[in-house]
Amino acid sequence: MGRAPWLPLLLLAVALSRCGSLLGQPRRSQQRPQQQQAAPQQRGLFPAVLNLASNALITANATCGERGPQMYCKLVEHVSRQPARNPQCRICDQRSRNPNLRHPISNAIDGKNTWWQSPSIQNGIEYHYVTITLDLRQVFQIAYVIVKAANSPRPGNWILERSLDGNNYEPWQYHAITDTECLTRYNITPRTGPPSYAKDDEVICTSYYSKIHPLENGEIHTSLINGRPSADDPSPTLLEFTSARYIRLRFQRIRTLNADLMMLAHRDLNEIDPIVTRRYYYSVKDISAGGMCICYGHAKACPFNPATNRSFCACEHNTCGESCNRCCPGFNQRPWQAGTFLVKHECEGTVIAFLLIVHHPNIKLIIASSYTTCI
Ligand SMILES: *[C@@H]1O[C@H](CO)[C@@H](O)[C@H](O)[C@H]1NC(C)=O
Ligand SMILES: *[C@@H]1O[C@H](CO)[C@@H](O)[C@H](O)[C@H]1NC(C)=O
User: Fold this and answer.
1) Residue 22 confidence (pLDDT)
2) Residue 91 pairs with which residues in a beta bridge?
3) Which regions in the chain score pLDDT beneath 70?
4) pLDDT of residue 4
5) Model's pTM, two decimal places?
6) Atom of ligand 1 lying closest to residue 126 CA
7) DSSP secondary structure of 77-113
8) What is the CATH number of domain 51-76+86-293?
9) For ligand 1, is residue 257 a contact (CB within 6 Å)?
């Protein structure tokens, strides 16, 4: 028969760069159930948590001095021992050329020591009710919200709220001056001591951050992920609970000194010495909202695009879509799944097996391989 023997040549591997797995290679999907300690390359990818408030659009529905100069005074405890002239009193004026007299709400997200301030209740009891709204311009997963007061105590009764659409708001956390007011004002059993959470979407009421002290520069830390049951590997419930485009701080009662409380409750505001009522207002030096893009465990980067004012997920794991929320075309071998802290759940291409036999007098070439589709 032939002169030279046919050369059996079996090519089992056709390396298609960047195009997924090859037949015969162990697939990660077949290795389940996963061990608890997943190797880093097996885990989902998550973007860094950033302060999203600095890029937000922020509004407040009342600001000190918005209709011209107003006097306010700082809260100090022993008023009677004050010198007669009021060294603790200052002027706010939104129309002033002097930036030190203006306290717009943008001061709360500018990263500086400047602050926002509300009109004092000398202007009317309705100034207990002031609302601050942040629009983050797109939906993010919010990990925490930190509010820092400036030259007044922290707010007394208030609700931290979130919204996806700017119309329907849901509470994240209630704050009340006393545990009793959690029940009487908000009809919620108070959570005593430092805030703790029994469920991923539990909305608590706490008086922990509504104390009168410190009189200035107090802070309020609200954690939406840490301390919740599935914090280490967030459940769909926790993901939903922490999703927000709008964050609202609905202030409903200014914290007053106990000595002033009775007087304010039982007398006409006009009868009260203005030195007392001018001391009561809200102030906010800083609002931070730590959060990240929602990329469902499939992106480790989410850069901000100044052209669109939006951040976008840099999708990996063969996922596509604004939130990496579907498999890219051609990578539908398995249904899309969110990556988690433990498992990456990447999308995989359709396996196409082929066999190519070349007949030649001198060569018998058999290529048997498979590749994943790449489009
Ligand atoms: C601010 O808006 C809230 C509604 O969120 C309202 O209840 C409150 O009266 C408003 N405050 C002022 C001073 O207009
Ligand atoms: C992005 O936001 C800035 C500041 O709010 C604004 O001036 C600019 O017009 C916005 N750009 C787009 C494309 O919306």
Assistant:
1) 36
2) 71
3) 1-38, 77-87, 350-375
4) 42
5) 0.82
6) 13
7) S-GGGS-SS-TTEEEE-TT-SSGGG---GGGGGSSSS
8) 2.60.120.260
9) no
